[in-house]
Amino acid sequence: MRKKRPVLEVLGVVATLVLAAFAAVDASGSTSGATPRSKLTVMAPAAPGGGWDLASRELQQALRAGSIVNNAQVVNVPGAGGTIGLAQFAEIGPDPTRLMMTGTVMEGAITVNGSSVDLLDTTPIARLAEDYEVLVVPADSPFETLDDLLAAWRDDPHGLAIGGGGLGGTDHLLVGLTARAAGIDPARLNYVSFAGGGEVMTALLSHTVAVGVSGYNDFRDQIEAGNLRALAVSAEEPVPGIDTPTLVEQGIDVALPNWRGVVAPPGISDAERAELISIVTEMTQTPEWADALSRHRWVDSLLTGDEFTTFIREDQARVDAIIEELGL
């Protein structure tokens, strides 16, 4: 476990307060005697409408439609890049009827917020899918291409306000990586953090910031409506259904997937973990999940059990190194 830092002392109080709310999801009584097949509650450690919430509800729908779980529910516990939910989740005990959605954003928040709990303090179940970040500008922006943006950015790094999600999250990491690859000192960035993609979009459309970064789906409707112009996507290779070139294709050697996956509480048995892996694997084979992947332009990246644990360990180290190198 990570050493607790003073900046997060208040989170213990908040986590205690929301713990009761999460436990109260089962209003009919205790989960004693319940099994993951009869009842499964998924925590989305963010507010409704965000990426984790969306992934959790698509998971819920596929579990229900596929008759894999009799009663699948979603509960939201927002705050601090998911680390409030994580701290709470790690304390609920070895309950195999609980899952939490997680991903790259939480890894960054764990480090930047100095979380006393990390993802290896849970029981990793499965990585599900990856989606990608996109750099956008308002339709009336003078930046017609990524090269236009980079030229102005190099001339005045601090003068160009770039809006994205929380500090240390995927948006922030992508901005820092892109700046470094373009020969711009990340320490000179003017990065403005917002609670989510909706707030970033509002800031863009009101010209509060010149550039926005978030998940593609946060901006998709406005891009298709012609109100925003997408300049680059953070995928390694072109993504089917996204008519925007990657950073790599445009000479910036940066690719940053935003993976999403689920973990269980610590302390569950090997048999309970195996059952949860089986449930999630069955879910990924449903037509409903295939439809969700297609609609949201997500890329299937199923990885389960010990392989997922290894991935988390390595990816957290990668994110930590990026944050340290960029001084974020």
Automatic annotation (TrEMBL):
Q: Which Gene3D superfamilies does the entry mention?
A: Bordetella uptake gene, domain 1, Periplasmic binding protein-like II
Where in the sequence is the signal peptide annotated?
1-23
Taxonomically, the superkingdom here is Bacteria
* Alphabetical UniProt keywords: Signal
UniProt cross-references to CDD domains, sorted A to Z: PBP2_Bug_TTT (cd07012)
One family name in Pfam for this protein: TctC
PANTHER family tied to this protein? TRICARBOXYLATE-BINDING PROTEIN, UPF0065 PROTEIN YFLP
Q: Which family does it belong to?
A: Belongs to the UPF0065 (bug) family.
Name of the protein in its database record: Tripartite tricarboxylate transporter substrate-binding protein
Recorded source organism is Streptomyces millisiae
